[in-house]
User: Which sequence fits this backbone?
């Protein structure tokens, strides 16, 4: 669904707080995605990321 | 770690630490868990707090205060500057400050566990009875009469307990900040650049951190963020233009909610404080004081509830009512209204406001006094801005 560029992620939690499905969680400094809950058309986490660490699946 | 406590605090930031200390001071058994392996890092904050606000909770100590400022300069879209004498502000060193607060909680008798995560709440019907805890690869059940969710902007614990904590994209500021060294700054002055061209729906800040060093950061509205126009992109352009000589020693990412607070911050066995309750100031983005204030209030409510043997939502709602009726609650409502009015403006209007304000005198800088001064010079905004 989404790919996290771990070398870019600043583990700030911005994406977690806008995800309406609770699909993202910051475990320690590691962003984890629940692929069952994540919806492909949704672009909220991709949009909000201050560093550009989230890629959508088609990219 | 025991298997049951009076109070479980999820999160080791200022809100959680003050809550844990307050409850432990009153003789309750308290466990505070922090998912990170260390308290205070990574920093996700511009670190500014009013000195009076700080000293309501802890004695000012140079070990965790990087700089003290006495004036604020607002810079408009065309570069017009308005300098206001302000009450003393402290720019903290959160890496030291957060540990100091946690130490105070530990001294009071709270048990602290780091690298320990609340995986999910233990629910019995609608009642929150503790949390499933993960630590060093092991899962355990920790029961608590009251859980205080102080888990910051992510607000995952309350979300898992069935409370909608999702922040809409246009009500969150996505932020980036650098610690920049070797730059010419006035160490006693906070600077706020307000230009929607440079910081769409937000602002840029320069807060001194000591000799030739500052936190330089930006918050932009979530709905304005996107490829090439992310918080860090905007910040890089600002630094390149204004502080090209600066040497960057730290990158900090973060987010601040600028929505209204959660409509309910108490549930059966649960209290939500600080950023997790969306209590950061929607105009300034400041959240340290509000986290400590609500953390203390939540713990006081938990203490009475535990002593009375009733930790139902009905009993804990006293906390929700108390913070809404407090000065903090009223200030949050005012800041939200001013933020909404500001977001309806554009750079042209903002520039006009800055020009009108050049000779104004504000005795004590506050949101209310600023609004009063803007309205005096710009009565046409009477319908836009809340009555000050």
Assistant:
């Amino acid at each position: 669904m989404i790919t996290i560029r771990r070398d870019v992620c600043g583990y700030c939690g911005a994406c977690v707080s806008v995800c309406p499905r609770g699909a993202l969680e910051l475990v320690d400094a590691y962003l984890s995605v629940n692929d069952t809950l994540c919806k492909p058309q949704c672009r909220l986490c991709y949009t909000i990321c201050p560093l550009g660490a989230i890629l959508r699946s088609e990219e | 770690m025991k298997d049951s406590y009076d109070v479980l605090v999820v999160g080791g930031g200022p809100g959680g630490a003050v809550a844990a200390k307050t409850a432990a001071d009153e003789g309750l058994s308290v466990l505070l868990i922090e998912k990170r392996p260390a308290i205070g890092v990574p920093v996700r904050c511009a670190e500014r707090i009013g000195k009076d606000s700080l000293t309501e909770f802890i004695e000012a100590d140079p070990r965790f205060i990087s700089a003290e400022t006495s004036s604020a300069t607002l810079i408009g879209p065309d570069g017009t500057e308005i300098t206001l004498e302000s009450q003393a502000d402290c720019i903290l060193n959160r890496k030291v400050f957060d540990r100091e607060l946690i130490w105070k909680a530990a001294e009071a008798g709270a048990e602290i566990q780091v690298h320990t995560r609340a995986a999910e709440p233990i629910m019995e019907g609608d009642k929150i009875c503790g949390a499933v805890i993960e630590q060093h690869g092991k899962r355990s059940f920790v029961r608590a009469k009251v859980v205080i969710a102080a888990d910051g902007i992510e607000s995952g614990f309350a979300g898992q307990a069935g409370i909608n904590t999702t922040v809409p994209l246009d009500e969150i500021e996505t932020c980036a900040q650098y610690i920049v060294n070797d730059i010419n700054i006035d160490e006693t002055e906070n600077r706020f650049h307000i230009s929607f061209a440079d910081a769409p729906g937000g602002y840029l800040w320069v807060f001194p951190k000591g000799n030739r060093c500052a936190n330089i950061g930006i918050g932009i509205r979530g709905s304005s963020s996107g490829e090439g126009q992310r918080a860090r992109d905007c910040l890089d352009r600002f630094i390149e233009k204004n502080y090209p000589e600066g040497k960057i020693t730290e990158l900090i990412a973060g987010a601040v909610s600028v929505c209204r607070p959660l409509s309910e911050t108490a549930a059966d066995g649960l209290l939500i404080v600080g950023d997790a309750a969306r209590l950061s100031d929607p105009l300034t983005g400041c959240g340290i004081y509000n986290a400590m204030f609500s953390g203390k209030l939540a713990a006081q409510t938990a203490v009475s509830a535990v002593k009375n043997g009733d930790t139902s939502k009905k009993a804990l709602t006293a906390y929700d009512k108390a913070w809404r009726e407090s000065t903090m609650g009223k200030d949050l409502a005012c800041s939200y209204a001013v933020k909404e009015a500001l977001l309806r403006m554009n750079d042209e209007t903002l520039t006009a406001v800055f020009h009108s304000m050049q000779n104004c005198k504000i005795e004590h800088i506050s949101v209310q006094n600023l609004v009063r001064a803007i309205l005096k010079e710009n009565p046409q905004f009477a319908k836009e801005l809340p009555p000050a």
User: Anything to note?
Assistant: The two ends of chain A are 10 Å apart (CA to CA).
